[in-house]
Amino acid sequence: METLGLALMGTGRMAQVYGPKINAHPGLRLEVIYNPRIASAEKAAAQYGGRAMDDLASVLADRGVDAVVIATPTDTHLDYIEAAAQAGKPIYCEKPIDQSLDRVDRALAALDRHAVPFMVGFNRRFDPDNAAFREAVGSGEIGRLTMLMSWSREPSPPPIDYVRASGGYFVDATIHDIDLLCWIAGERPVEVYAAGSCMFDPRIGAEGDFDLTMTTLKMPSGALVHVNNSRACAYGFDQRLEAAGDAGMIQTVNHREDNLVRWDSRRTAAREPLKHFFLERYDLSFDHALDEFYAAVTEGRAPSATADDGRAALAIALACAKSAKSGHAEVPDYRRSHESS
Amino acid sequence: METLGLALMGTGRMAQVYGPKINAHPGLRLEVIYNPRIASAEKAAAQYGGRAMDDLASVLADRGVDAVVIATPTDTHLDYIEAAAQAGKPIYCEKPIDQSLDRVDRALAALDRHAVPFMVGFNRRFDPDNAAFREAVGSGEIGRLTMLMSWSREPSPPPIDYVRASGGYFVDATIHDIDLLCWIAGERPVEVYAAGSCMFDPRIGAEGDFDLTMTTLKMPSGALVHVNNSRACAYGFDQRLEAAGDAGMIQTVNHREDNLVRWDSRRTAAREPLKHFFLERYDLSFDHALDEFYAAVTEGRAPSATADDGRAALAIALACAKSAKSGHAEVPDYRRSHESS
Amino acid sequence: METLGLALMGTGRMAQVYGPKINAHPGLRLEVIYNPRIASAEKAAAQYGGRAMDDLASVLADRGVDAVVIATPTDTHLDYIEAAAQAGKPIYCEKPIDQSLDRVDRALAALDRHAVPFMVGFNRRFDPDNAAFREAVGSGEIGRLTMLMSWSREPSPPPIDYVRASGGYFVDATIHDIDLLCWIAGERPVEVYAAGSCMFDPRIGAEGDFDLTMTTLKMPSGALVHVNNSRACAYGFDQRLEAAGDAGMIQTVNHREDNLVRWDSRRTAAREPLKHFFLERYDLSFDHALDEFYAAVTEGRAPSATADDGRAALAIALACAKSAKSGHAEVPDYRRSHESS
Amino acid sequence: METLGLALMGTGRMAQVYGPKINAHPGLRLEVIYNPRIASAEKAAAQYGGRAMDDLASVLADRGVDAVVIATPTDTHLDYIEAAAQAGKPIYCEKPIDQSLDRVDRALAALDRHAVPFMVGFNRRFDPDNAAFREAVGSGEIGRLTMLMSWSREPSPPPIDYVRASGGYFVDATIHDIDLLCWIAGERPVEVYAAGSCMFDPRIGAEGDFDLTMTTLKMPSGALVHVNNSRACAYGFDQRLEAAGDAGMIQTVNHREDNLVRWDSRRTAAREPLKHFFLERYDLSFDHALDEFYAAVTEGRAPSATADDGRAALAIALACAKSAKSGHAEVPDYRRSHESS
Question: What's the pTM value of the predicted model, to 2 decimals?
Answer without folding.
Answer: 0.95
